[in-house]
Amino acid sequence: MNETFSINTMSRDFDITPRALRFYEDKGILSPQRRGTTRLYTERDRTRLKLTLRGKRLGLKLEECREIIDMYNPSQSNDSLQLLRLCEKIRENRAVLLDKFKAMEETLKAMDEVEEKCLSKLIRNAA
What we know:
The protein is mainly α and 127 residues long. It has helices spanning 7-14, 18-26, 43-57, 62-70, 80-126, and strands at 33-35, 38-40. The protein has a domain at 1-70: Multidrug-efflux Transporter Regulator, Chain: A, Domain 2 (Orthogonal Bundle).
């Protein structure tokens, strides 16, 4: 018999709220079994959730996570397309982050210059 997990167990194990789990279900990432009003998550759901949370940490949107996860086909040993798509999304997100980082560096430099001018003027005014 395959092991199943309750919504509370999943929430605790992944440190997310039950509401987040229901949200991922609505987005088609998770598909728990139902027994009445009780949701029962499978090992497949756990893996999909773990991959989704990892994808989010990499900057992927939920739709991108779902797309890449759905590319997996256990009957095929070659997952090159899935890996290429993931690498493509990582490159895109890295470029965006590097642009933001550059903008932040420029802002910090401008702040340093303005602060230095303000402090110099304060020192001149105090003399």
